[in-house]
Structure formats: C-alpha cells, structure tokens
Request: fold
Amino acid sequence: MSNDVVIRTDRLTKRFGPLSVFEEVSLEVKKSEVMAIIGPSGAGKSTFIRCLNYLHPFNQGKLDILGHTILGGKHHLPREELRDIRTRVGMVFQTFNLFPHLNVLENITLAPVEVKRVARANANERAMELLEMVGLSAKAKMYPKRLSGGEQQRVAICRALAMEPEVMLFDEPTSMLDPELVGDVLAAIRRLASDGMTMILVTHEMQFAKDVADTVVIMADHGVVETGPAREVLESPRTERAQSFLHRVLHPEEANDLIDAKMAPIGGRQ
Ligand SMILES: Nc1ncnc2c1ncn2[C@@H]1O[C@H](COP(=O)(O)OP(=O)(O)O)[C@@H](O)[C@H]1O
Ligand SMILES: [Mg+2]
Reply:
C-alpha cells in the first residue's frame, strides 16, 4: 500500500443479521484528501463510516486504516489496536452528543486529559485555540444547553480535534441544524479541509461537496453506485442510479410530479 493512503477498504461487506447493508465496497482515501459520501437515507452511509473506526464490526473484506489491517468476520479487536484507531480518527455525529454536565472547555479537554494524559494547562490552551478557530472563544464556560445547535456542533468538532486526529469522519454534521446555522459549521469544516485534514464526510450539502470534496461517492442499493472526482460525479454522473438520485436531491420540487407520473395511466396522461 503506498504511503499516502490513509484509509482503504477492499470489498467491505456489512450485514445486520439477514439485512445486507452494503456489499463489496472498495474505496481509498489519501492523506489530505476529502471524500464526500452521499446517497438516499438507509443506503448504509452511517454504517459504512462507523465501520472505519470499528464502531461496527463488518462481515467480509479488508480495512486498512492508519497502518492497521483489519479483516472482516472479527468481532473484537485487541484493546490497544482499537484505542490507537479511536484516538487517531476523530468522529462528529449528526447529533452533537456533548456531555451535558460539562461546560464547553471541559467537554473539549476531557479526552486529551483523561486518555492522552495531556497536562491540564496545555489542554486548556489548545481548546481555546480551537474555539477561537470556530469563533466560539467567548462560550468556553457555558454549558451545552445554552448553546444553539450550530454552536454545539462546532464545539463537537473542537472536541474531536482536541485529540489531534489524523483523519476526521463527519456523519451529516449539519442535517439537524436550522438552515441559518449550517453555514458556520460548514465554514469550520472547510477551514479544516484547507488546512490539509484527511476527511470523509457524509452530507446532503451538494454545493459544499462540490466545492470542498476531492472525490464523491454515491451509495445506494447495497453498495457504491458511482465514485470519482467530485465535480464529475455531481455534474455529469454516468450511472442511471446516480442520475436519478442527484435529480431528486437537486429538484425536490419535482417530487410530486414524479408521483403523479407514476400514477398516471400507462401511455401517459390524457
Ligand atoms: N444497529 C443496527 N441494527 C440493525 N440494522 C441497522 C442498524 N443500524 C442501521 N441499520 C440498518 O442499516 C441500514 C443502513 O442504515 P444507515 O447506515 O443508518 O443508512 P444511512 O446513514 O445511509 O441513512 C438501514 O436499513 C438501517 O435500518
Ligand atoms: Mg446516516
């Protein structure tokens, strides 16, 4: 494997009991690359990125991540290996999951202090730098419930970054936010991308994906239906499945027309 490949999956297959979530997904992310994963709800996007830091075991295939090689069918990894992956891969979820009983600064410094044994003063200093970066240094002493969703999500990003991860995984980080709060969170992610962070981002923000991602992956129907350079995939998808998905996302107002068309008598509307 060439040195600059950070994550590679080779025919990764995941089932939940009888349910096949995805089959034979083979992808590669190089250092400083941004990969956006898009696709309809239920396509297995969340499950896929959770397999990458082993929040879910997978059934078949092979995962190479940050120098570790993991084969499908295993249910437990050695504790040290799991710990190494989890500390080097940061993850941000749809729901921010901040600790409600800790203030912003404490949320961000908890893992560095407890897991990495960073000195408290250094952890605080780094946390303040991160908060500064996302425009929240004034909120360091506030508790999560006093913050807006967009602010909480930016704190969650800082919390992940405080572990100095080498890869960041984002699972629809803006989909729970009111539209006017999305921009600040996207700006923080854009900033990370331009600083060279390697990342995989599940998102519905097509324009953002086009601007920020190097590659786009479309997941649907139990696997990857199309992948390639972001602009190519989003502007001129080759497969019919990708075309129909993108059409529906980009023209939601036509959803009713589609239903009408389906219900129209065969041979077209009279
Ligand atoms: N822990 C689980 N146990 C059983 N089925 C699950 C679990 N998590 C997700 N699924 C199922 O796997 C499929 C893919 O889900 P998910 O990865 O959340 O899709 P997406 O993120 O693309 O919307 C769905 O059918 C979902 O119901
Ligand atoms: Mg999901």
User: Anything to note?
Assistant: The mean pLDDT is 92. Residues 45-46, 171-172 surround magnesium ion (ligand 2) (CB under 6 Å). The chain is about 40% helix and 25% strand. Residues 70 and 239 are 31 Å apart (CA to CA).
